Amino acid sequence: MNTEKLKEYIALFGGLLGAVLLFLQTLGFEFAWFTDKSIEAFTNALLAAVPFILIIYGVWKNTYVVTKKAKEHKQVIDEHEKKKEEA
Question: What distances in angstroms separate CA 74 from CA 15, 44, 45, one per listed residue?
Fold first, then answer.
């Protein structure tokens, strides 16, 4: 799943929230916190959060200082590169 697909899902979710808002307003229910502006703000927050989370995940997966397994993996990579240089 790529970022464009995630953005489409977020837009879909925002649209569904808008539909729920219109449905509730048709029935006469109104909430001070559930407005078009709050839905737009929530959707924008999600759109900003998705790339942030993907970047954090990428940094986490490509860093060799966090877990013991990652540190061991880094040692293996370093040994392999050292052998390549010697050859």
Answer: 45, 38, 36
**Nearest Cα residue to 65 out of 57, 74, 56:** 74
**How far apart are alpha carbons 76 and 82 in whole angstroms?**
10
pTM: 0.61
Query: What are the pLDDT digits (tens) for 71-84?
Result: 888 888 888 888 88
Residues in the chain: 87
Q: Give the residue among 60, 61, 56, 43 at the shortest CA–CA distance from 6.
A: 43
Amino acid at 60: W
